[in-house]
Amino acid sequence: MQILKNVYLTLCKLRDFTIIGSVVFVIGLVLVQIFLRYIASGAFRPFAWGDELIRNLSAWMFFLGASLAAREGSHISLDFLVKKIFKGKARWAADKLVCLICLAIVGMVIVVGFQSALDNPASMVNLPSVPMTVFFLAIPVGMSFVFIDFLLVLIFGYHPFSKKALAAAEAEKAAATEKEAE
């Protein structure tokens, strides 16, 4: 379990840095494009590839952000309705069924996403030597994270590596250490 936790948290850090780096880069590029288009009018022209790169990086931010929301359980749900209708074992079964349905849908999106990404290897963006495959891979990569997150929820009944669960584990560990010290 510890190896799984370390691998998963390392991948999460990589995902988080990718999201943060993409957001910072996109904001910077948008500001440069605005400056070149409206303020430096005439002397300089905006980058021909700038708008296309911003649009394509948005896909990476969207799908990686969706995986972050899946980890933290932040997606929209009908929790109130489910809690009212289902109680006890029926609630447990309903939660598992929903998780299985989500896994099936996400799995289909991953397969179709990989097919779409690999179908057009010759398609290029305006940037030199950057194939569209790089940007189309945002769908299966981001959804693979979502799949792993839903699989963990299915197995454990909650996400064992969410910030809330990790904080609770740390608090429990600190309380045990404090109790031993007494």
Task: Spell out the key features of this protein.
182 residues; mainly alpha
Describe the structure.
The protein is mostly helical and 182 residues long. The chain has one domain. 77% of the residues lie in helices and 0% in strands. The protein is built from seven helices and no strands. The radius of gyration is 21 Å and the shape is extended. It starts with a helix and ends with a helix. The model has no long low-confidence stretch (mean pLDDT 87).
Number of H/I helices: 7
> Fraction of residues in helices?
over 70%
Count of separate structural domains: 1
User: Beta-strand percentage?
Assistant: under 5%
What spatial form do the alpha-carbon principal axes imply? extended
Topology:
Blueprint (H helix, E strand, L loop, with lengths): L1 H38 L10 H23 L6 H7 L3 H31 L13 H4 L1 H19 L6 H19 L1
Helix pairs in contact: 1-2, 2-6, 4-6
Condensed summary:
With 182 residues, the protein is mainly α. It has seven helices and no strands. The model has no long low-confidence stretch (mean pLDDT 87).
